[in-house]
Structures are given as structure tokens and as C-alpha cells.
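tool=predict chain=A
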Amino acid sequence: MVDKTIIANYGDSNLGKTESILLVYERLAKIADCETILQKQSHPNGDICVVLSINGINVGISSLGDPHYPHKKWRNDLIAHNCHIILTACHYSGVTRDAIKKLSATYRIFWTSNARIYQEFPATVKGPKSIFTRFNEQWAEEIANLIECWCYA
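tool=predict ok
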């Protein structure tokens, strides 16, 4: 059985953490034995909180990031559903990151970041959208592969 694990996709706002996590969900949903949707947001980004069963391992996915208040509830719902693997989003710092760190007594925690590319000046301009999309797709594929490997180990 896989060790209880949280994978936290963390970083600045508006870099595609939610979209990347949704891509992981799409990949893993194709191989899941069953799926239980706990929450689904109605905003345009379509945040989800879902439990996938893959080879008898509960994998929890929460795409909701900071600073949305239900983040803690969604994470607690995944823990209550006995998820051995949880994939979630958060910022580099703040209450959500701190709450994830507090779970280290029960879960091993992996911190990861999806697409990161910045233009030097002006600092508010980020790289081309097509590069973000490709980086995020590659990140999602690798995270989905990692989770799948753990479920069949």
C-alpha cells in the first residue's frame, strides 16, 4: 500500500495550478475504477473535489486554490474519505500552505510547481500562453504517471 501522500502544487496566483490539476484529474479519471465527486464549483475554471479509486487506492483531487474559503473543508473531506494520495493547490505561503504542512505527521508531503517562466521586465508580464500550456500539460502528465505508479506498486 502506498504511503499517505499529499502532492501540493504551489506557487503564485494565475500560473495555471488549478488548470494543471484538472488535467491530472482528466488523465486519472480514464483509468479509475470509480469516481465520487464531493464538490464541484460553478465558476468558469470548474474547480473540483473528487475521489478516484485506482486499483483500490483512494486518490483525492482538489483543484481549489488560495484564497477560497472552502479549501480547508475540501481537504478535510478528502482525508475523511481515506484518501491515500491527495493532490491540491496552494500559494507559496499563507494559511493553506501552513495547514498542509501541519499534516506532515500523517502524510508525506511533496511540493511541486507547474509552469514557471517570467519575463524580466516588466515583472507583471509573464511568458507566452502557449509555453504555459505546454509546461502545464507536461507537469500534469508526469504527476498523473507518478500517482498511477503508486497505485499499482
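Residues 114 and 139 are 6 Å apart (CA to CA). Helices lie at 17-29, 71-80, 95-101, 129-151.
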